[in-house]
Design a protein that fits this description.
By secondary structure, the protein is an alpha+beta fold. It contains ten helices and 16 strands. The strands form three sheets. The protein has a ten-stranded mixed beta sheet. α5 packs across α9 and α6 packs across α7.
């Protein structure tokens, strides 16, 4: 029997300890990260306990218009589990989740899977459970990932840009100047995409204080001016470029090319993957060929980010509900 408890602030230490010891959790699921934007979302994160009251899984989530999301404020989400999670237990978790949704008049779950490159151990029990429960694939978005132990070869044009930047006295440095960085990032986003960064400079400063090693700002400078930069989210296996920005001078001199090459070399012996993120719009339907080609030219190839939707059938006879909304006996046996 799997029981579900809705997350509360007093469970913060329990939550964070489980994330730290999990096989697929990263620092973005830590409540010190998630809660910085708690005012933007109605949190509905869930904690799953087995029949011995052992915590077996977490699911970062928010709710909006009777739809459960895992989580709209995160790039990916889904079930966070430890090495004790097995396939049958995950199926039980899904049965409990379906009952929880039914009891709370939640019509569907929009579920973002955690890409395998972020797993410390194999952690795709949720994918099979989604299949068994007739979840539908909502979208696939290609992210460009370099396997740092064996990157694909860079083309001559990319190498030429890097050489040009070296001759232009571009300086690469680690920085905490989030004000200048966000100003540059917003200029680029406004010009090319008519949008602005999700994070403010103040938010990034706060998060940097909380996650000194995991959040890193690296800049390419010409003189005293930042002309290109990337904000990195660093986890156990993966270095992820959360933002990339380069002004016209940086494009002319190849400053961003030099910066990325510097970081690939820096992390090559310490991390498994260098992940650039997606290059699509319109829920994955539109591929920005220029953007993904630029990322691929550094030696990366595709890792997919997947999103599923699971709709709840109010007449599902496999769901057996205890009184007072207490969960649940599933149709699956125990290990």
């Amino acid at each position: 029997m799997i029981k579900i408890t809705k997350y509360k602030k007093e469970y913060k230490d329990i939550w964070n300890k489980f994330i730290h010891n999990s096989k697929n959790g990263i620092f973005m699921f830590d409540r010190n990260f998630m809660d910085y934007h708690s005012d933007r979302f109605v949190d509905n994160s869930l904690m799953f306990y087995d029949e011995k009251d052992n915590l077996v899984a977490l699911m970062p989530a928010n709710i909006k218009n009777n739809v459960l999301y895992s989580h709209q404020g995160l790039t990916y989400g889904g079930f966070i589990v430890d090495s004790n999670m097995k396939q049958r237990k995950m199926l039980e978790c899904f049965e409990s989740l379906k009952t929880y949704m039914q009891l709370n008049n939640i019509s569907k779950l929009v579920y973002k899977t955690i890409p395998h490159i972020y797993h410390r151990l194999p952690s795709q029990e949720d994918l099979y459970a989604l299949y068994i429960n007739n979840a539908k694939l909502l979208k696939i978005e290609p992210s460009t990932t370099i396997m740092l132990s064996s990157p694909c070869k860079m083309p001559k044009g990319r190498k030429a840009q890097i050489a040009r930047a070296k001759k232009s006295n571009i300086i690469i440095e680690n920085s905490c100047n989030f004000n200048e960085f966000i100003e540059l990032e917003n200029q680029i986003l406004k010009k090319y995409h008519n949008t602005v960064a999700v994070h403010s400079a103040d938010e990034l400063t706060l998060l940097k204080l909380r996650f000194q090693d995991e959040i890193q700002l690296w800049c390419a400078k010409l003189g005293d001016k930042i002309i290109a930069a990337t904000l990195l989210f660093v986890s156990d296996n993966v270095v992820h470029t959360q933002y990339l920005a380069a002004d016209e001078k940086a494009r002319e001199l190849g400053a961003l090319d030099l910066l990325i090459k510097y970081l690939i070399d820096k992390f090559q012996n310490h991390k498994k993957y260098f992940d650039f993120g997606i290059s699509t719009e319109d829920n994955g339907q539109y591929l920005n060929n220029g953007l993904i080609s630029q990322k691929e030219s550094f030696g990366g190839r595709t890792t997919v980010y997947q999103t599923f939707v699971l709709k709840i059938d109010s007449n599902d006879e496999t769901i057996k509900i205890h009184t007072e909304g207490k969960l649940l006996e599933t149709k699956y046996g125990r290990d």
